Amino acid sequence: MLVGMSEGAAEDSVFSSRHADPRRDAHVPGLGSGDDGWSIHMQAEVRAVESYPVVLPCTFSHPQHSKHSSLQVLWRLGHGQSATVLYRCTSRPGAPTCEPRPQQDQRYRLEGNPREHDLSLRINSAALQDSGRYFCRVEIQGREHNGYEDKMGTRLRVEAPPKILALSVEGSEQAGYRALCRVQGSPLPDVQWLGADDLLEGSPIGPLAQDSTADFHTVSQLRDVEPGQQYTCSASNPLGKEQAVLYVLPPRPPLSVAGASLPLLLLLTASLGAKVILLVGTGVWMVQARALQGVTCWWK
């Protein structure tokens, strides 16, 4: 369940959700806690929307005799040897804030106050690549077993509406043409091809990559594209829909050199504006127009 935007400016808005899980509502002992009164509490899952900030909640309890100790807070993405430390700070007795390490990435900020048992982490401008499992850890200087963390962590899912990254045609008059539509989004968008009057049968190309980007990138192909026809790539998921229209002009005879590349005229129209791409030989001119923003032209 997606929770809406909080009050205030858009840049200060936080999206999150909680999936009910009775096992995570109880106190979860941290590593090394034993019977000494320490425990860590985290949500099972948090969801965010791309480009908005998100907060990963993490709180802990501890015996009162340790409240004057120096605390070190650590957040990491993943576990084991592949884990990445994203944030580390030190909270000293009497200090108003938790001092981050030098050269700390400013996208990450401690939202909570360790002295109030709150280690929540804020991620500014969440990206699809931020999706993964996060672990919160607190360390107490001067204790024999000084590390405490939740064993399960929090699963962050960053969602985004569909975005058509590229629409192109490849092939030749002899071998035939095919159209390619590269799409990004989370959940992974459903891609359909439409002709002038009917639904066409496309097929995905994959896997695109062996890493996590395969979870939100896909390429769909449409075979047997015919010059002089119009084709629409339509991508949709629960967060939205985007379309791009492709016009393929009939090829002209080469002007000079036999076998030269045939020019094609592609016109892409998307939900936020219009793009025109003109392919002549090996050169590409692209003109992009958007409402109330004028026209920009450049050489690619």
Task: Give a structural overview.
This protein has 300 residues and is mainly β. It contains one helix and 23 strands. It has one helix at 22-25, and strands spanning 39-42, 45-49, 54-56, 58-61, 71-77, 84-91, 99-100, 108-110, 121-123, 132-140, 147-149, 154-172, 176-186, 190-194, 199-200, 203-205, 217-225, 230-237, 240-247, 264-270, 273-280, 283-289, 295-299. The strands form five sheets. Strands 2, 5, 6, 7, 10, 11, 12, 13, 16 and 17 form a ten-stranded mixed β-sheet that branches. A four-stranded antiparallel β-sheet has the order 15-14-18-19, with no helix packed on it. Strands 20-21-22-23 form a four-stranded antiparallel β-sheet, with no helix packed on it. β12 and β13 form a beta hairpin. The longest helix is centred in the first third of the chain and has 4 residues, at 22-25. It is rod-shaped. The two termini are 42 Å apart.
How would the blueprint of this fold be written?
Elements: H1 22-25, E1 39-42, E2 45-49, E3 54-56, E4 58-61, E5 71-77, E6 84-91, E7 99-100, E8 108-110, E9 121-123, E10 132-140, E11 147-149, E12 154-172, E13 176-186, E14 190-194, E15 199-200, E16 203-205, E17 217-225, E18 230-237, E19 240-247, E20 264-270, E21 273-280, E22 283-289, E23 295-299
Parallel strand pairs: 2-12
Antiparallel strand pairs: 1-4, 3-9, 5-6, 5-10, 6-7, 8-9, 10-11, 10-12, 12-13, 13-17, 14-15, 14-18, 16-17, 18-19, 20-21, 21-22, 22-23
